């Protein structure tokens, strides 16, 4: 008999963006501006190789053994110390190590979301979070972040809020300081969990970093922190994504519940990767990579904006973000079919991200997410020239005269 195929119902709702992207990545000559990948030239591979060898040879019983579910104590303490240095009064008790930000989102779904609970988001929002929460069958409500006075009432109508205040994926939007303060005050007043997903917080290209929601919610005591913010961090965009090391910083009772859920998921995070992370942090590798990443990505951000102005301004509007990895291109024609643009782009040799995956309620109108970190200036220009040809095929009325080949 053939095996049954009555898979869980929630799978019907998953977006196929990631699998489509993985499939398309094999097309020869394709320029991929759809992903959100760091540039591998920034990876400190030799240093990490030495660290890994040292960890395995030096303490194989730790590096190759099981570890505690909430993470290696020294790594939890190191993360807490780093956050204390930037003004967040937290202790190791507030920290849990995860298999990067993605696992933290999955565990939050398991611990805080009962079917039908309401999640408040600033749409468009990270499609990976929507995917992680999907098995829990939540409902969603858009949070109007500009309405500061209305935020407490808005949070009362939600069970938890999920936000990416630093350079949102997909829009690149930076939530300003006044709005951050209003959000934290509203969460504290209403007792609503406020998830601050922050993989891009190190990637500020212009101007100083704003304090995070966690810092704004800490009262400066000796800790542990007991407030409503649940901060998610990750090394993926500031060191390497392959180690799959991230962390949750939250009140100890949240950490305890997340730890129970993690036990059933993977018992513990990869101990070798945690040891490598600890050594990399202690040796200052993140600080070494940081200025190079900022210089490279700042230049590429400007290169993509310039290429967009050269090639696709007839069809799209955008703001140039001050950090992160993406430019959000909003279609001037609200009737544009973005799926058609993705297909036409593929035919021209460019892969772009459809905005619809981040905006299931269609609040923002048709848009594309364009990544600038994974290609050099030449590749970005080629990508936008190809996108212009795709747009000419999909929406010829708006096309400027004499599109260049490339
Ligand atoms: C907003 C946001 N959250 C979380 C993640 C998950 O990243 P990772 O699992 O590599 O930490 C990403 C990855 O792109 C992201 O953009």
UniProtKB/TrEMBL annotation:
Cofactor(s) the protein requires to work: pyridoxal 5'-phosphate
Domain Aminotransferase class I/classII large: 60-387
Source taxon at top rank: Bacteria
Family matches, as Pfam families: Aminotran_1_2 (PF00155)
CDD domains per the UniProt record, alphabetical: AAT_like
SUPFAM superfamilies reported for this sequence: PLP-dependent transferases
Biological process annotations from GO: alpha-amino acid metabolic process
MF-aspect GO terms: pyridoxal phosphate binding; transaminase activity
The entry's keywords: Aminotransferase, Pyridoxal phosphate, Transferase
Protein name stated in the entry: PLP-dependent aminotransferase family protein
Protein's organism: Mangrovicoccus algicola
């Amino acid at each position: 008999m053939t095996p049954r195929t009555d898979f869980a119902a929630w799978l019907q709702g998953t977006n196929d963006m990631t699998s489509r992207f993985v499939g398309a990545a094999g097309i020869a000559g394709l320029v991929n501006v759809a992903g959100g990948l760091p540039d591998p030239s920034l990876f400190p591979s030799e240093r990490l190789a030495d660290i890994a060898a040292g960890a395995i040879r030096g303490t194989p019983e730790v590096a190759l053994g099981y570890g505690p579910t909430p993470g290696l104590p020294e790594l939890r303490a190191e993360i807490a110390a780093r956050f204390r240095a930037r003004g967040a009064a937290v202790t190791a008790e507030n920290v849990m190590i995860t298999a990067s930000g993605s696992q933290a989102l999955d565990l939050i779904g398991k611990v805080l979301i009962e079917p039908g609970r309401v999640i408040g988001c600033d749409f468009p929002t990270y499609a990976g979070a929507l995917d992680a929460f999907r098995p829990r069958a939540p409902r969603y409500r858009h949070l109007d972040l500009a309405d500061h006075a209305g935020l407490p009432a808005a949070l009362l109508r939600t069970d938890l809020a999920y936000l990416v205040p630093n350079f949102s994926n997909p829009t690149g939007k930076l939530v300003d300081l006044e709005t951050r303060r209003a959000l934290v005050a509203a969460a504290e007043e209403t007792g609503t969990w406020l998830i601050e997903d922050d993989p891009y917080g190190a990637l500020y290209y212009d101007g100083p970093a704003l304090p995070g929601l966690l810092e704004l919610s800490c009262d400066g005591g000796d800790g542990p922190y007991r407030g409503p913010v649940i901060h998610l961090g990750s090394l993926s965009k500031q060191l390497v994504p392959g180690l799959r090391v991230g962390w949750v910083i939250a009140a100890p009772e949240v950490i305890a519940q997340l730890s129970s859920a993690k036990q059933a998921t993977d018992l513990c995070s990869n101990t070798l990767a945690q040891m490598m992370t600890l050594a990399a942090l202690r040796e200052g590798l993140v600080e070494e990579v940081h200025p190079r990443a900022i210089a490279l990505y700042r230049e590429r951000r400007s290169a993509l904006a310039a290429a967009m102005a050269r090639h696709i301004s007839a069809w799209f509007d955008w703001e140039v973000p001050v950090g992160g990895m993406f430019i959000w291109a909003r279609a001037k024609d609200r009737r544009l079919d973005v799926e058609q643009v993705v297909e036409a782009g593929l035919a021209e040799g460019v892969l772009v991200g459809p905005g619809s995956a981040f905006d299931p309620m269609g609040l923002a109108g048709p848009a594309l997410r364009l990544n600038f970190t994974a290609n050099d200036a030449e590749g970005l220009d080629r990508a936008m020239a190809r996108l212009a040809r795709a747009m000419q095929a999909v929406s010829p009325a708006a096309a400027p005269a004499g599109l260049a080949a490339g």
